[in-house]
Design a protein that fits this description.
The complex is a heterodimer of chains A (124) and B (108).
Chain A: E1 3-6, E2 10-12, E3 18-25, E4 32-39, E5 45-52, E6 58-60, E7 68-73, E8 78-83, E9 92-100, E10 113-114, E11 118-122
Parallel strand pairs in A: 2-11
Antiparallel strand pairs in A: 1-3, 3-8, 4-5, 4-9, 5-6, 7-8, 9-10, 9-11
Chain B: E1 5-6, E2 9-12, E3 18-23, E4 33-37, E5 44-47, E6 61-66, E7 69-74, E8 83-90, E9 97-99, E10 103-107
Parallel strand pairs in B: 2-10
Antiparallel strand pairs in B: 1-3, 3-7, 4-5, 4-8, 6-7, 8-9, 8-10
The chains are: A mainly beta (124), B mainly beta (108).
Amino acid sequence: QVQIVQSGAEVKKPGASVKVSCTASGYTFSNYAMHWVRQAPGQRLEWMGWINADNGNTKYSQNFQGRVTITRDTSASTAYMELSSLRSEDTAVYYCARSKRYYDSSGNLLLDVWGKGTTVTVSS
Amino acid sequence: SSELTQDPAVSVALGQTVRITCQGDSLRSYYASWYQQKPGQAPVLVIYGKNNRPSGIPDRFSGSSSGNTASLTITGARAEDEADYHCKSRDSSGNQLVFGGGTKLTVL
């Protein structure tokens, strides 16, 4: 079945970087895109960016521009999200989620399969 | 504004109908999609486009849109529908995805 497995929880100090992975199975990885969404405690879901798994093109949220890098390894059906210059406000659950590579007829990118989330804690 | 606004909390009696709304300027141009999230779990897509349900989503879930407001309606709410519901769309530039603040639905 289609599933996405994320890497385990991380604890980082302020100023460090974190790299989270999500490995897809049950579908052709390069036929889709992968998004990263985070949810800080008590906060709304926040979209961080996405990568076209076929050509590697990325787009990032303006809120994270310069701090986030999304990459993929098609041979491993895995996408990665690296967030740098961590601060306490980056403590959150980080999700990856699949979408088609192009907007659908209603102008949407639908996040139809999600990983279970990776908890990142930033603390000194 | 690129933001999507939702009521923080809504309640409904078991078996009754509830509507959850999402407001934002970008909804005049783009449809919203809706995600259900239960505690400790990842979100699940429940409604997208004009009024479409992914496979496996019960038909008591429906969607609609008018002007700058998108709505998710649950007809005949069940105990298992108690969850947070998040709307999502594109921002006014069309280049970014944005989520609403989420609505916590309590089924009484």
